[in-house]
Predict the 3D structure of the following.
Amino acid sequence: EPEVTQTPSHQVTQMGQEVILRCVPISNHLYFYWYRQILGQKVEFLVSFYNNEISEKSEIFDDQFSVERPDGSNFTLKIRSTKLEDSAMYFCASRLAGGRGQQGDTQYFGPGTRLTVL
Amino acid sequence: DAKTTQPPSMDCAEGRAANLPCNHSTISGNEYVYWYRQIHSQGPQYIIHGLKNNETNEMASLIITEDRKSSTLILPHATLRDTAVYYCIVRRRSNDYKLSFGAGTTVTVRA
């Protein structure tokens, strides 16, 4: 069964450094998402991406964050200058397409990248 | 998106059915009920979703009341591997389809 993959599984970085989290969505999916979960807290939406553009972003997704689909398979989240409070699990998700509650509406999540900022 | 209310935790005996309630009294006509679960900080796993009819798949059944103000997720034969946080999410059909997770219900399946 196709699945979303994410690398690395754990990233440790120093405060102020740039990090890039990588995701390979399910191959024929068209919509891509990043969420994060700070330890012990809720899963929070960061950004959605479709047709090489951001379609929605949350307040968390400030100028320090960017997303890119550099090729036909990868979807990346870059944090330009990490802060201690960026430490969290970051989840990538993808879905096929829209349509009336059908399976294309369903988002499938990757296993996550644990980011630790020291 | 409509707000959902779930009990913070519940226990279930292995092999028995687990019935997880969710209230969404402010749901509107174009909003779907989605259920996901998260096993120990892994990525959320899709379980099932529905609009107004009851739904069943290989993982679970979803019962939505006629007025759509509440729903119940049923795991027919709970196993220890079903121990997880279960999220009931009401999602509006829109272009972006973002999911808003609450605190969910922590379900512990006991042997």
